């Protein structure tokens, strides 16, 4: 691949990456995705030198100007929001820029459009796949910018790059430039550096309690779910047909299966619709040190910390389990008389933390409650519709005939509805005009709100203060990250009965389907992959999208605790090793003292001698290793490995040129110790003639023939005899010098 093709491929990959991020948001319709994909493929082939399918810059500009009226019509009548119209406009401009004859500034404009698409998509999605696309976008962006600069600079060069031909040792190798490989390597290196710098910077930059989760263009996509003010019979069944994600909740440990994510509470029933007048009387909760404290009393029962990630909904109620004690990571919180919590950002994505306690009041204590309500409680939670049928009261009395207290009456009604009625999403009406009477006496089939409404009415008819609660089942539990995935199809309604002696609202769930445990991801390759993907999404939301000041403090505390643990562990191990060393030294001193003073002195002396011998052998081995490192290889082999001479000669014949160099190096080392050193200007043959040794001349000629000539086979025996003769002559010269020195001294 040449540099021009690499530049084009990287540029198109960058443009495609920007489009894919927009498609990930779900704001690009299928027709637009298909048209833009076809335009990308067609523009790639239209940009080939042999074809003339490109348009001029003037035509492209006029087409963009002509799109302005259509953009207005798209905004007013075709698109669902201004964001969708903006996406259509950006993609339209990108298509015409791809088809026009592109100069350098046109490529830069396409790059800017791709970056704008990426930034726009960042505000439209919180999917973890965006992080993968962003990584690919960064890689292709770096490659495209580098290739763009190389191509742009190459056009300005007067002479093209030349291929340099080098030769070495008689063998020629052609070194060709590889710019594409170089750009790929530099792209990966730069991306790694960017990641190494940006990731710590992202986590260390100061944060405010705003986060990115609510700073998205998500108001237009709020899901239709529970209403703040009312629940109509049959409305929850419509919600349960929606499989979209409603919220994600991260906990520390799995929760009991009977719990729910409680949202709102309904108190008034007119026969067909539940309402709550208390919703209009909200009281703002005061912020204390970044937290909203709802109950300053000591929590009773198990404490549960929930990190909730709420998708856009048309309700302002907050969802939680148990009795909330503390809420954090919110910019505004309100509460009504029923305990329902409200947020300030209506219809936006949100993340918040709730600390709740699970009521664990013993059943015996609830059975002993005399159920003495005050006037306000009786007026609110014993209210019955004006069209209330007395047959409901009669049925409730028949069901609870054997119960002697309020708790057992509520349990009896719950069991009756679970066992005598069936759950269905397909409603069938009977002959009764009252939907609850029709449900209890005719069809005995309905949604969860029918079961809950029937139980509330029967409890109230018996003097039990009760209300209807709306929210979700626990959902699907992912044990990889301790997170519950709650969908709209998990919407549910249940009953809460008030026991004034303990001041608790106890949950009762009369719906048969609600008795099942929360869904857990089944086994299988695809299911496991989906669990890992969902865990990655939750991690991305938790540590990237919803990363705020509180999360930053928690992360810093975790890092600090981990550092302290490592420090404590290191100090403990160091102290233990030091004590072990001290005890070992003391034991050795005691052993040596007992060895000298005891009867086994000679035995221990033998052991010490053996140890000393081992140390001497180790020292000798080290000296031998040092000698080998500082002795020429061939000289060492000749001196110390002469008994392996046959094998040595066979190995030398494997590469005659290398053998010649080794023989010459050994000869040069011998001559250097004798005072004969080759001058820089001397050739090997001139140096041999200057020494006056016939053996040196023989070895030098063999070296030249093997090193620079065509002769590949060497007479190693002749060279070996020459080396031996040279060694003897040099030794004789040294001995003659010392004899002469002694003779002069004698005179």
From TrEMBL:
Single biological process term from Gene Ontology: proteolysis
Protein name: Transglutaminase-like enzyme, putative cysteine protease
Record field: transmembrane: 12-45, 77-96, 108-126, 132-151, 182-205, 601-625
Annotated Gene3D superfamilies: 3.10.620.30
Keyword Transmembrane helix among UniProt keywords: yes
MF terms (GO), sorted A to Z: peptidase activity
UniProt key word Hydrolase: yes
Domain Transglutaminase-like: from-to ranges: 440-512
